[in-house]
RNA sequence: GCGGGGUUAGCUCAGUGGGAGAGCGCUUGCCUUACAAGCAAGAGGUCGUUGGUUCGAGUCCAGCACCCCGCACCA
C-alpha cells in the first residue's frame, strides 16, 4: 500500500542502483540510425558537487533521458578535469599542513602526491552526481590526464607545432605571483577598484629645477622605467625634443621620446615607459628600441635591479617609494582614481604584467574557421544571442599563452638538446637529438588546462584513433554549458574540433545561466550565501530539487534560487504521488490489454482530458526539442495539477462507483493519461515517476527509463474545450455565489442555473450529476425556458435558494462576429502584402531582408486565415 | 567606448500581432475518503517612457530612462 506522503529517500536509492545494474545508462541499440551524444563539462578533480554542477547536469540529464525514450542510441560521456592550477593549489595547501612545500618534495614526488590525491578524492563528485540521478555512461568515463587523452594532447600539440601554429616567444604576459605561473588573457578577472593616481616629477638632466610630470597607478614600476613618452603633436612638450630626464631616486638617464600612442588628454600627457611591466609600454619599447628592465622576481618582490629596494614586496615597495619621493620633493600630488585591477581567476591575487618566455598558439586562422562554421549554421546556439559574444571574442582574439609554470598537467612534448641547442617536438619521448646527442632536456612547463579540455569532444571518443565509437557519436549532438566558459571552453573546442576532425565538435550548444542566490547574486563562500545541493536533495528529495532548478531557468545571467521554490515543487511531487495513489486504488481490477479507448462512448470530460493530454505531449516535446526547459516544466505541471487532478479526477469519481462499463472506460483513460504524464515528467523527476511506473498494472517495459516517449497526434477538439469551459464556468459560479452567501457546504440548497443559450442548457442537463459532484450538496434546477435576464418562474415562485445566471459564457454570435471581422482584416492585409510582393518597385528598392520578411509575413497571414476559418466552422456547427 | 540581456501583480517570472497569465505571498471559507505538502473562492496590473509600423501592439521598429552582464581602454 502506498504511503500518504511520497518518501524520496527509499525510491532514490533503489532506482539509481536498479538503473545502473540494468545498464540503461550505456548506449543501447535504439531505432535505426538515431544517435544522440553529449560530453559532460568535466568538473575539476578538486570539486565537490555544487549548485552549478547540479544545474548543468540536470539539464543534460533531462535531454538524455528524453532522447533515450524517443529511441535514440545515446551516449553521455562523464569525465573529470585535472584542473592544473586549481589542483596544484589544493594539494599544496594539504602539504602545508604537513609542513611541506612542493619545492621541498621536488617535482617527481609532488606529482606523485597529486596523483595520490586524485585517486583518493578525484571521483568524489561522481558519487554525488549519482544522487542527482544523472544517467551518464559510467563505463565511458574519462579523465583529461588519462593515457588516451594525453595521447590526443600530444598529437594536437605536435601537429600545431609542425604547422606553425605554436611558437615560443618572450612577451609580456599576465603573471600570477602567488601561483607563480603565466595566465592567458581570459584567466584574468578584472575588478574596479578605488585606487590612487600618483603624479611624479622627472627632472631634466641638464636642468634640475625644471621637470616633466608623469602620472602612474603603480609607482613602484618606475624602477623599471627606461623613457618618458609624449604625443608628438603635444604643444607642451614639442620644445623639449632631444632633452633627457633623470629618473628620480634611481638617477637613471631617460630619453624623452615621442609616440602617437600617448593620449595628451590623460594625466599630464607624459607617460613613463616601463617595457618590462606593461603591455603597451612593451610595444613602445619595441618601436623605439628601448632596453628592458625587469625589476620583479617571480613572487613580485623587487629583484637586484631595484637597488636599495631589493627584496621588498611590490606593495611595500610602493609605500616606501612614495614616501621617498615625497621626502625628496619629487611627488607632485596624489589623486583618487578608479581603475580596473586584474586578478588571477584561481586565487584572486593581483596579476602583474610580466616579461617572460612562453609558448603561444597563433589563433587568427583557427578563430576564422570557428566563426565560419557557426555562420554557416553548422552549430546552432540556444539561445541564439550568445552567437554575438562568440563572434565578438573570436574576431578580436589574441594569441593564446598555453604554457604554465606549474608541475601538475601535461608537460609540453618539447625537448632541448643540451649539445646543439636544437628544439625537438615529438609525439613520443625522443631518445636522441638529430645531432646524435642523447643529452635532451624536456621543457619544464605544462600546458594550460584548457588546452586539453578543448579536445574533449573527440578525445573522449578515442581520437586520434577513429574507432566505432567515434564514427557513431562524432560530432556530438549537444553541448550544455554555462556562459562563463563560453570562451575558455566552448569556442576553443570549436576551433580544435574543426582543425583536427574537419567537422564541428557538436551540432548544438545550449548556453545556460549560472545559479545565484535568491537575490540573483553569485554564490560564494565569502558571502555566506552558498546552498549545498546535497542539502536540498536530502530535505526535499532529488526530484523536487531537479524540477525547481529547471523550472527556474531564465535568460538572466544568474538565476535566483530559493529554497521556497524547492518546497513548492516538493509539494508537486507529492501531488503526483497522491494522484497516482488514487488512480492505482481504482485500478485493482483493471488490466490494460482490455482497453481500446476509441471503441468506448466517451463523454465530455473524457474527450476533454484526452484533448488536453494530446496538447501537453506536443508542447513538452516541442519545448524540450528547443531546450526551453521552464516552459516544458510548466506545461506538465499545469496539466497534472490544474487539469488532471483538479478537474478530471474529481469528475471521474462518481463514474468509478457507477456501472461497470463506465468504470472500465474511466479506468482506461486514467491509465492512459497517468502513464503518459509520468513519462513526460520522467526526465524532470526520474525517481518518483519510476516508482509509480513500477506499480502500474500490466508492465509495458521493465523501466520507465526505456519506455517509449508518448506520441500523440493533437486532436484539436475545440468544441469539447468550449463545452468544458462552459461547464467549469457553471461550477465556479455556483461555488462563488455560495461562498458569497455564506452557505456551509453541508447544507443542501436548491440552485437554479439560467444559461444564456439553449445549447448551453443541453450541455448542463447532460452533466448535471457531475456538477452536483463538484459542488457538493446542491440540488440543481436547470431552467432554459426563462427568456428575460434575471427573471424566471421558479425564482419568482421562491422554489430556489440561489439563482446563477451564467455570465462570461462564450457568446457564439458575438464570437462569430469577432472572428468574421478578424478574417476580413487579415484578408485585407494579405491583399496588401501580396500587392507589395508583386510590385517590381518594391522588390527592387527594398533591402533583401525586408523582402524576405515580407514573404514570411505573407505565408503567416495565409496560415492565420486558414486557422481562423476553421475556428469559424467549429462555431457554425453549434 | 563596443556589444548583449532586462523593465508585466507585493515577490519571482511566463507570455513569437487579435481574450493580460502562473507560482509564491496575501484575504476568506473548508480536515469534502488520493493529497492540509490539500481543496474552494477572492483581492491585486495605465505590461518603464515617447513616438512609429498596423484595422489592431505587452508582443514588431526607433529614440529615451533605469537595472544587470560581458568585452575593450585611459598611464
Keywords:
46% helix; 4-stranded antiparallel β-sheet; alpha/beta; 17% strand; RNA-binding; 878 residues; elongated; 4-stranded mixed β-sheet
Alpha-beta classification = alpha/beta
Instruction: Report the end-to-end length measured between terminal Cα atoms.
Output: 47 Å
Poorly predicted runs are 786-790
Spatial order of strands in the largest sheet: 6-5-14-16
Mean pLDDT: 87
The major beta sheet can be summarized as: 4 strands, antiparallel
Q: What is the count of DSSP helices, taking H or I runs of 4+ residues? A: 30
Radius of gyration, Cα only, in angstroms?
36 Å
| Coarse morphology | elongated
What does this structure look like?
The protein has 30 helices and 28 strands. Helix 28 runs antiparallel to helix 30. Mean pLDDT is 87; it is low at 786-790. The chain binds one RNA strand of 75 nucleotides through strand 8, strand 12, helix 12, helix 19 and helix 21.
Quick structural overview:
The chain has a four-stranded antiparallel sheet.
Q: Layout of SSEs?
A:
Blueprint: H1 8-22, E1 35-39, H2 51-69, E2 73-77, E3 79-80, H3 84-97, H4 102-105, H5 107-121, H6 124-132, E4 142-143, H7 147-162, E5 166-176, E6 181-183, E7 188-204, E8 207-216, E9 227-230, H8 235-238, E10 244-246, E11 253-258, E12 270-273, H9 279-287, H10 314-327, E13 331-344, E14 352-361, H11 364-375, E15 380-382, H12 386-395, E16 400-401, E17 403-404, E18 414-417, E19 423-425, E20 440-442, E21 446-447, H13 449-453, H14 456-459, H15 468-473, E22 476-482, H16 486-501, E23 506-512, E24 514-516, H17 533-540, H18 542-552, E25 558-560, H19 563-585, H20 604-625, H21 629-657, H22 660-681, H23 686-695, H24 718-741, E26 750-754, H25 758-766, H26 768-774, E27 779-782, H27 793-796, E28 802-805, H28 812-838, H29 840-845, H30 848-877
Parallel strand pairs: 1-2, 3-4, 9-11, 15-23, 22-23, 24-25, 26-27, 26-28
Antiparallel strand pairs: 5-6, 5-14, 7-8, 7-13, 9-12, 10-11, 14-16, 17-21, 18-19, 18-20
Helix pairs in contact: 1-23, 11-12, 11-16, 17-18, 18-19, 18-21, 19-21, 20-21, 20-22, 20-24, 21-22, 22-23, 28-30
This protein binds one RNA strand of 75 nucleotides through strand 8, strand 12, helix 12, helix 19 and helix 21.
Amino acid at each position: 500500500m502506498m504511503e500518504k506522503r511520497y518518501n524520496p529517500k527509499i525510491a532514490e536509492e533503489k532506482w539509481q542502483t536498479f538503473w545502473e545494474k540494468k545498464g540503461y545508462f550505456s548506449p543501447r541499440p535504439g531505432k535505426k540510425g538515431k544517435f544522440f551524444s553529449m560530453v559532460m563539462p568535466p568538473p575539476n578533480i578538486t570539486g565537490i558537487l555544487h549548485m552549478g554542477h547540479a544545474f548543468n547536469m540536470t539539464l543534460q540529464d533531462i535531454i538524455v533521458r528524453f532522447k533515450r525514450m524517443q529511441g535514440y542510441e545515446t551516449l553521455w560521456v562523464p569525465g573529470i578535469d585535472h584542473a592544473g592550477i586549481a589542483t596544484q593549489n589544493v594539494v599544496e595547501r594539504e602539504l602545508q599542513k604537513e609542513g611541506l612545500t612542493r619545492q621541498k618534495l621536488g617535482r617527481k614526488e609532488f606529482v606523485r602526491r597529486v596523483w595520490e590525491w586524485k585517486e583518493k578524492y578525484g571521483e568524489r563528485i561522481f558519487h554525488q552526481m549519482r544522487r542527482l540521478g544523472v544517467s551518464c555512461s559510467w563505463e565511458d568515463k574519462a579523465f583529461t590526464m588519462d593515457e588516451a587523452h594525453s595521447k590526443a594532447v600530444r598529437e594536437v600539440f605536435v601537429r600545431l607545432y609542425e604547422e606553425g601554429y605554436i611558437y615560443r616567444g618572450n612577451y609580456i604576459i599576465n603573471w600570477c605571483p602567488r601561483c607563480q605561473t603565466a595566465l592567458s588573457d581570459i584567466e584574468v578577472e578584472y575588478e574596479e577598484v578605488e585606487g590612487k593616481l600618483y603624479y611624479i616629477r622627472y627632472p631634466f638632466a641638464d636642468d634640475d629645477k625644471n621637470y616633466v610630470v608623469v602620472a602612474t597607478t603603480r609607482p613602484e614600476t618606475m624602477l623599471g622605467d627606461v623613457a618618458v613618452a609624449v604625443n608628438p603633436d603635444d604643444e607642451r612638450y614639442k620644445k623639449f625634443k632631444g632633452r633627457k630626464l633623470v629618473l628620480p631616486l634611481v638617477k637613471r638617464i631617460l630619453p624623452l621620446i615621442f609616440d602617437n600612442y600617448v593620449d595628451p588628454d590623460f594625466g599630464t600627457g607624459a607617460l613613463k615607459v616601463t617595457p618590462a611591466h606593461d603591455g603597451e609600454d612593451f610595444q613602445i619599447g619595441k618601436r623605439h628600441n628601448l632596453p628592458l628592465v625587469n625589476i620583479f622576481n617571480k613572487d613580485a618582490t623587487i629583484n637586484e635591479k631595484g637597488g636599495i629596494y631589493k627584496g621588498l614586496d611590490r606593495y611595500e615597495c610602493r609605500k616606501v617609494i612614495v614616501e621617498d619621493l615625497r621626502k625628496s620633493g619629487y611627488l607632485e600630488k596624489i589623486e583618487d582614481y578608479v581603475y580596473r585591477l586584474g586578478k588571477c581567476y584561481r586565487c584572486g591575487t593581483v596579476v602583474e604584467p610580466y616579461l617572460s618566455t612562453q609558448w603561444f598558439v597563433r589563433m587568427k586562422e583557427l578563430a576564422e574557421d570557428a566563426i565560419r562554421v557557426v555562420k554557416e549554421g553548422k552549430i546552432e546556439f540556444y539561445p541564439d544571442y550568445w552567437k554575438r559574444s562568440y563572434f565578438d571574442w573570436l574576431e578580436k582574439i589574441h594569441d593564446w599563452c598555453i604554457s604554465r609554470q606549474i608541475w601538475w598537467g601535461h608537460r609540453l612534448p618539447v625537448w632541448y638538446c643540451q649539445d646543439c641547442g636544437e628544439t625537438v617536438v615529438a609525439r613520443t619521448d625522443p631518445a636522441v637529438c638529430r645531432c646524435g646527442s642523447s643529452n635532451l632536456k624536456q621543457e619544464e612547463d605544462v600546458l594550460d588546462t584548457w588546452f586539453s579540455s578543448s579536445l574533449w569532444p573527440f578525445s573522449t571518443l578515442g581520437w586520434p584513433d577513429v574507432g566505432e565509437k567515434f564514427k557513431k557519436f562524432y560530432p556530438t549532438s549537444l553541448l550544455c554549458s554555462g556562459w562563463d566558459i563560453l570562451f575558455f571552453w566552448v569556442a576553443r573546442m570549436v576551433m580544435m574540433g574543426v582543425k583536427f576532425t574537419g567537422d564541428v565538435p557538436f551540432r548544438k550548444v545550449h548556453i545556460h545561466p549560472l545559479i545565484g542566490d535568491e537575490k540573483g547574486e553569485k554564490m560564494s563562500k565569502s558571502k555566506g550565501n552558498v546552498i549545498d545541493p546535497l542539502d536540498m536533495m536530502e530535505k526535499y528529495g532529488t526530484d523536487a530539487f531537479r524540477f525547481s532548478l529547471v523550472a527556474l531557468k531564465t535568460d538572466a545571467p544568474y538565476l535566483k534560487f530559493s529554497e521556497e521554490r524547492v518546497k513548492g515543487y516538493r509539494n508537486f511531487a507529492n501531488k503526483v504521488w497522491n494522484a497516482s495513489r488514487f488512480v492505482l486504488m481504482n485500478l485493482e481490477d483493471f488490466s490494460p490489454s482490455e482497453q481500446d479507448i476509441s471503441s468506448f462512448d466517451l463523454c465530455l470530460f473524457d474527450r476533454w482530458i484526452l484533448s488536453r493530454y494530446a496538447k501537453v505531449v506536443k508542447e513538452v516535446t516541442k519545448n524540450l526539442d528547443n531546450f526551453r526547459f521552464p516552459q516544458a516544466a510548466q506545461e506538465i505541471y499545469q496539466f497534472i495539477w490544474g487539469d488532471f487532478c483538479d478537474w478530471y479526477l474529481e469528475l471521474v469519481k462518481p463514474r468509478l462507483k457507477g456501472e461497470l462499463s463506465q468504470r472500465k472506460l474511466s479506468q482506461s483513460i486514467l491509465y492512459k493519461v497517468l502513464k503518459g504524464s509520468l513519462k513526460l515528467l520522467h526526465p524532470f523527476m526520474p525517481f518518483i515517476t519510476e516508482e509509480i511506473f513500477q506499480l502500474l498494472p500490466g508492465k509495458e517495459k521493465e523501466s520507465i527509463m526505456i519506455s517509449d516517449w508518448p506520441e500523440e497526434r493533437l486532436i484539436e477538439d475545440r468544441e469539447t474545450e468550449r463545452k468544458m469551459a462552459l461547464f467549469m464556468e457553471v461550477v465556479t459560479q455556483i461555488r462563488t455565489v455560495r461562498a458569497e452567501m455564506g452557505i456551509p457546504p453541508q447544507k443542501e440548497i436548491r440552485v437554479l442555473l439560467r444559461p444564456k443559450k439553449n445549447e448551453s442548457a443541453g450541455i448542463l442537463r447532460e452533466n448535471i450529476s457531475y456538477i452536483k459532484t463538484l459542488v457538493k450538496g446542491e440540488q440543481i434546477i436547470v431552467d432554459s425556458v426563462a427568456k428575460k435576464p434575471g427573471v424566471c418562474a421558479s425564482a419568482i415562485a421562491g422554489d430556489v435558494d440561489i439563482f446563477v445566471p451564467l455570465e462570461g459564457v462564450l457568446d457564439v454570435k458575438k464570437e462569430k462576429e469577432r472572428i468574421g471581422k478578424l478574417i476580413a482584416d487579415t484578408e485585407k492585409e494579405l491583399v496588401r502584402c501580396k500587392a507589395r510582393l508583386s510590385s517590381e518597385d518594391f522588390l527592387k528598392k527594398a533591402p533583401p531582408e525586408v523582402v524576405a520578411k515580407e514573404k514570411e509575413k505573407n505565408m503567416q497571414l495565409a496560415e492565420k486565415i486558414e486557422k481562423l476559418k476553421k475556428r469559424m466552422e467549429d462555431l457554425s456547427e453549434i
